[in-house]
Write a structure and sequence with these properties.
The protein is α+β, with helices and mostly antiparallel strands and 296 residues long. It folds into three domains: 37 residues, YefM-like domain (YefM-like fold, 3-Layer(aba) Sandwich), CATH 3.40.1620; 91 residues, PAS domain (Beta-Lactamase); 119 residues, Beta-Lactamase (2-Layer Sandwich). It is 39% helix and 31% strand. It has eleven helices and 13 strands. The strands form three sheets. Strands 5-4-8-7-6 form a five-stranded antiparallel beta sheet. Strands 10-9-13-12-11 form a five-stranded antiparallel beta sheet, with helices on both faces. The longest helix is centred in the first third of the chain and has 27 residues. The termini are far apart. The relative contact order is 0.07.
């Protein structure tokens, strides 16, 4: 199409034999100034004669592209997360060293491999749905899933010119502990809001370290008076041995214990359902949590 919007015919690339080029080099170099000229030998293309300014522009573009690729590779190696570039069929095109370590194979063996072969849970919902949404609508996605070593991996998926890219961040034991604590806090807050369920944090010696308002209301004692007391003292004599035995099992690393016991409330016995679970502190048991069900 010319400047006025009219269709023009595309001219085929012109060829010249090497013998003819040698005989009339001056004329043919003038022709090469107007566009690439294919030089043939015995009828087969051997090389292309290109004007100096066209070559300089081509070379400069090639160098810039190479420098950009080098900069990208250096940057991907400096970030502290695994970085993977996928095509639209989810096959790996590029990845940094950390990603290859996390996926358990060398970079050469991973190139061209589907990410689903290394992280098969990505093929399951809801992960696969989110991955496809990134490719379809260019909307980024964040989620966590279990890797091959059953450790959690934080995944950030986002659009990339060739398809999509992922950053992979392995969740450390400290992160897991922090997440577990956050989940526990949310659970206890929900239980306290429930009103008919109380929670208490116990030390390894079975004394009360902390209680919520619901627990204090169920046993009929103010929270500040409960802290430091032996939890077994809240129960009737007949229930103290079963409660102590359940606490001993839990503190020893056993499973969650649940039992019926009688609380001493207002000078009388009140049957209540309780549950006990240990919590870890560092490498050992730090204490236990007691959940107490209030009156119906």
């Amino acid at each position: 199409m010319d400047k006025e919007g009219r269709m023009t015919q595309v001219q085929p690339m012109q060829c010249v034999s090497s013998a003819e080029l040698t005989r009339n080099f001056g004329a043919w170099q003038d022709r090469a100034a107007r566009g690439p000229l294919v030089v043939t030998h015995h009828g087969r293309p051997r090389c292309v004669l290109l004007a100096a300014d066209a070559y300089a522009q081509f070379s400069r573009s090639d160098v810039q592209e190479s420098e950009s690729a080098v900069d990208h590779a250096l940057l991907s190696e400096r970030i502290d997360v695994g970085f993977v570039v996928l095509d639209k069929s989810l096959r790996m095109q590029e990845l940094n060293t950390l990603a290859s370590v996390m996926l358990g194979r060398s970079r050469d063996r991973l190139i061209g491999t589907s990410i689903l072969d290394l992280l098969p849970r990505l093929a399951e919902d809801p992960y696969h749905t989110q991955i496809r949404r990134v490719l379809r609508s260019a909307a980024p996605a964040r989620f966590s899933l279990l890797g091959q070593d059953e450790r959690s991996i934080h995944v950030h998926a986002f659009p990339w010119p060739t398809g999509m890219a992922l950053t992979l961040q392995s969740v450390s034991s400290e992160d897991e502990a922090e997440n577990e604590l956050a989940r526990a806090r949310a659970l206890f807050a929900a239980l306290e809001t429930h009103g008919n369920i109380g929670t208490a944090q116990l030390t390894v010696r079975a004394s009360i370290a902390e209680v919520d308002e619901s627990f204090a209301s169920i046993v009929g004692i103010a929270p500040d008076r409960l802290v430091g007391a032996r939890v077994t003292d809240l129960f009737a004599m007949a229930s103290r041995d079963p409660v102590s035995a359940a606490l001993e099992k839990v503190m020893g690393g056993g499973k969650v214990e649940a039992l019926d016991a009688c609380l001493l409330v207002d000078g009388g016995d009140r049957p209540r359902r309780i549950a006990l679970a240990s919590w870890k502190e560092g490498y050992g048991i730090g204490g236990a949590m007691m959940v107490l069900h209030g009156p119906a």
